[in-house]
Automatic annotation (TrEMBL):
The keyword Coiled coil applies. It comes from Actinokineospora globicatena. Residues 284-322 form a coiled coil. Keywords: Coiled coil. Residues 126-292 form the GAF domain. SUPFAM superfamilies: GAF domain-like, PYP-like sensor domain (PAS domain). Pfam families: GAF_2, PAS_4. This is GAF domain-containing protein. InterPro entries: GAF (IPR003018), GAF-like_dom_sf (IPR029016), PAS-like_dom_sf (IPR035965), PAS_4 (IPR013656).
Length: 409
């Protein structure tokens, strides 16, 4: 057995008697239950007491009494307790051991830990669902919230996930998603600056690399936020920057813990996968937002162009109407001038009003209604200024232009 299982990744333990005393166990079995408990000569329930509450010792008792083997597939086991507690999955067999007379004297435990496979399957399932959300252009807040809840469900220990988004200036971080963190905490860190020593997230954003803080209570990065973290019941924070394909900052992805903790390989894998997924979602959101903005600007430009064309048409129609009216007015004035040309020429000015004017009548004025009068130059100029549509009707002067350009006597 030692030759067969000594270097194997399969778990092996030989248990003796109805108390299931661990007679021997290979390194893989001892590593699975925890190196700190690596010893033999004691009942399995004393070595791994948490197995009793999960039904595994009862199954051993049944196999010992009945002499029938038992096989479990894809079985979930919670090992250890407190900060070291971990979830694991196993395929295993309890095989009764018999003496020469056929009496059951013990149980051989043979198994394979499939925790990584199980986690990978869970991760792939959840990751595929998130990618489908992104593909159907679900709102960014919905994708990030779903991602945070997914990670919180995948990890056996309690974890609280937060996603912060880089602000337009790239120097501040804004709230993106944190479904399990208290509101007062999210509000307090919304808008924090990026920079060295600004908590886990601000530092990760500044460095463009992961920052692992295993104990907030003693880490200098959290000096300014330690009281806030204590109020929220947070003891550890691992932050990963979310980077675009060109290396620019999109935000940060953080995993908080209630107790001081060092990340395991599975934790680091989760951070890498979901930071990449968040980057895809954020970049897709930015691209879609930019596309919609461009479409909105194009639509606004089209509307402005249509309005300008409409206005131009209205102005053109109005100009045509004005031109027609001007032509009609000119025709009326020309007719009035011709009609007044035969009116007798008085000797004195007719435009002096009630006071009269004795100056010689030199110019004839008329309007489009056919009224006409003779007057001196001074009163004729007043008429042209103050009377609508008044014009000089003296044919010998050649009209207003000739009068304006006349030479002084």
């Amino acid at each position: 057995m030692r030759a067969l299982f000594g270097q194997s990744i399969a778990l092996f333990a030989s248990l003796v008697g109805p108390e299931h005393v661990v007679e021997t166990a290979n390194p893989a079995f001892l590593a699975a239950i925890g190196e700190q408990r690596a010893r033999t000569g004691v009942p399995l329930v004393e070595l791994v007491p948490e197995l009793g509450g999960q039904g595994f010792i009862a199954l051993l008792d049944q196999a010992y009494r009945s002499g029938e083997s038992y096989t479990g597939r894809d079985v979930r086991v919670v090992l250890d307790a407190g900060p070291h507690e971990r979830e694991a999955f196993f395929d295993f067999t309890y095989e009764p051991r018999r003496d020469a007379e056929g009496t059951v004297v013990g149980i051989q435990v043979i198994g394979v830990e499939i925790t990584q496979v199980k986690h990978a399957q869970q991760l792939m399932t959840e990751h595929r669902a998130l990618l489908e959300q992104i593909a159907r252009q679900a709102p960014l807040s919905e994708v990030l919230d779903g991602m945070a809840r997914c990670i919180e469900d995948l990890t056996p220990q309690e974890v609280l996930v937060s996603v912060l988004l880089a602000g337009p200036d790239g120097l501040h971080l804004r709230h993106g998603a944190a479904p399990s963190l208290p509101d007062f905490y999210n509000e307090a860190i919304d808008g924090i600056a990026t920079g060295e020593g600004v908590g886990s997230c601000g530092t990760a954003a500044h460095r463009r690399e992961s920052v692992i803080v295993t104990d907030i209570g003693t880490d200098p990065f959290w000096a300014d936020f330690r009281d806030l973290a204590d109020r929220a019941g947070l003891a550890a924070c691992w932050s990963t920057p979310i980077l675009a394909r060109d290396g620019s900052l999109l935000g940060t992805f953080a995993m908080y813990h209630r107790v001081p903790r060092v990340p395991q390989d599975f934790d680091l894998a989760l951070a890498r996968v979901f930071a990449g997924t968040a980057a895809l979602a954020i970049e897709r959101h930015h691209s879609e937002h930019a596309r919609r903005d461009a479409e909105a600007r194009a639509e606004a430009a089209r509307e402005e162009l249509a309005a300008a064309i409409h206005t131009e048409r209205e102005l053109r129609a109005e100009a045509e109407q004005r031109a027609t009216a001007a032509a009609e007015l000119a025709a009326q004035m020309h007719a009035a001038a011709a009609e007044q040309a035969t009116v007798p020429h008085p000797e004195t000015c007719q435009l002096g009003g009630t006071d009269g004017c004795t100056a010689p009548a030199e110019l004839k004025v008329a309007d489009s209604w056919g009224d006409a009068a003779w007057g001196c130059p001074a009163h004729v100029e007043e008429v042209i200024v103050h009377v609508r549509s008044a014009f000089i009707a003296s044919e010998e002067l050649g009209g207003l232009g000739a009068y304006i350009n006349r030479r002084p006597a």
